[in-house]
Amino acid sequence: MSQVHIYDHPLIQHKLSIIRDKNTSVKEFRELVSEIASLMCYEATRDLQTEVIDVETPIGPAKARHLSGKKLAVVPILRAGLGMVDGILKLVPSAKVGHIGLFRDPKTLEPVKYYCKMPNDIANRDVLVLDPMLATGGSASAAITFIKEYGCRHIKLLNLIGAPEGIARMQQDHPDVDIYIAAVDEKLNDHGYIVPGLGDAGDRIFGTK
Asked: Which of 19, 58, 86, 87 is the most exposed place for a label (fewest CB within 10 A)?
């Protein structure tokens, strides 16, 4: 079973309280989503491998730790996941970025991939999948299934807010993918929105509603 890492850091929780507020402006909402993503990335990359290297400081030689092994890729789920990308790239500017877009078929209700573009070497990278909201878990599960088709085996999911239903779906479909999340709310309403949540993250990031 995958692990669920719930962030209790005061800075994350403070910023989360502001983006929950319906009166927060588009500009502030967008900036805070990026900032929260940066803080979450710090913890989600804690297990990256390092190696000891020799460096020459202005004073003399030193042993220092340097990232080794696999490099990172970030894959936002369009469109709301785009709001988290810059926050990650500020910490890991060398990370490559893939994109995946999904819509729900009105007849089958199954997620359908309408866009997918991945780095050529993504199978050799640790992958962070980004989506602010983990509601039913259908989109996240489908996106990760598509990503695995590229040969990726080291995947983590980063969300700002989730519902128990979405977490359960992810753990059922992808027990090998750990979930990093800033808050787990009460439930989903009849329309599939997280309660209390923060509304539609994509609309609030891009000012489309």
From this structure: 58
**From the CB of residue 198, how many other CB atoms can be counted at a distance below 10 Å?**
23
- If one counts every other C-beta atom within 10 angstroms of the C-beta of residue 70, the result is 15
Cβ atoms within 10 A of the Cβ of 64, count? 11
Q: Which long-range contacts (CB under 8 A, 24 or more apart) does 170-173 make?
A: 170/2, 170/134, 170/137, 170/140, 170/141, 170/144, 171/1, 171/2, 171/4, 173/137, 173/141, 173/144, 173/145
Q: Which residues are known catalytic residues?
A: 104, 108, 200, 203
CA proximity to 183, closest of 201, 174, 196, 170? 196
pLDDT of residue 109: 62
Q: What is the pTM of this model?
A: 0.91
